[in-house]
Amino acid sequence: ELAVCAKRIDNIPLEVGTWKGTVGQKLDEATRQYAGAVGDTSILYTNKKGERVNVFVVCGRLMDVMNHRPDRCYPAHGYKEEGERIQRPVLTDSGAKAEFQTATYSREGSPAPARLYWAWSSDGKWLAPDDLRDDFFRDKPVFKIHFEQELTQANQSIDEGPSVDLIKVLIPELSKTLFPDYKPPVKAPEKSAKT
Question: What predicted TM-score, i.e. pTM, was given to this entire model?
Answer without folding.
Answer: 0.86
